Amino acid sequence: MGLQREPFHRVYSAPEPPSPKRRPRLLVLLVAVVAFCGAAAVVFVLMPGHGKDAASPRTSPSGGTAPGRTTEPPSPSGTPSPSETPMQEQTVASLPKPCAMVSGRTVGRTIPKARRDESANSTFTTCTYTAQGPRFRWLRVEVNLHAPAKTPTPVQDAEGDYRASWTQAHDAPLVRTISLRRQRGIGDEAFRWFKADDGQPTVVGEVTARFRNVLVTVSYSEQAAKGAADAREGACLGTAEGVAREVLATLAHF
Description:
Blueprint: H1 25-45, H2 104-110, E1 114-120, E2 124-131, E3 137-145, H3 154-169, E4 175-182, E5 189-197, E6 202-211, E7 214-223, H4 233-251
Antiparallel strand pairs: 1-2, 2-3, 3-7, 4-5, 5-6, 6-7
């Protein structure tokens, strides 16, 4: 019979708390990535310029529009905007009475005690002043209106009328042309013509001027002694020009 072992009594100790479970490494990495992306989104939103109207075009550093964006096409090259378009040239709409375009003072100084004859319609008027007495003097004002109500191109028509008058002056019958030249500063365009009547002791200083859509012709005639016609050029043309300027000033108000 063998020896009996004495029972071994183990001292009791409280169980240790269980250690926390380990998180899977992949889950930890995923959480870190999500947190980083969220922080980047916040920074992007707070960047200057972000959040503006998405419809506004972005420009490249060279000043052009970035690809993928469109803007309103520019106006054709050389075409002014409405604010830059010049106003259409104003035209004369009607004519005053034939003998109302020259003041009584001018007539009295040029043709003392003149007899007056006139004729008129809506587009053509004439007024003739003739001296009463032994010394012949004569003044005629002729105005031709190219009315806007009767033609779509009144100014161009007046320009054609002016050119025709200039051409006719170069080949006028029954007169001897002493001088014929263009003159600046009278209306839009003008020429002065000094001539002597063939077979008559008279000379004529004539000024033809275009003002917008109106053609004005002023003729002043007087007697000239034999051989003295050329010497009256300055005086006759000066008289005709002074009257022409007065007529143009009157037409500017019509």
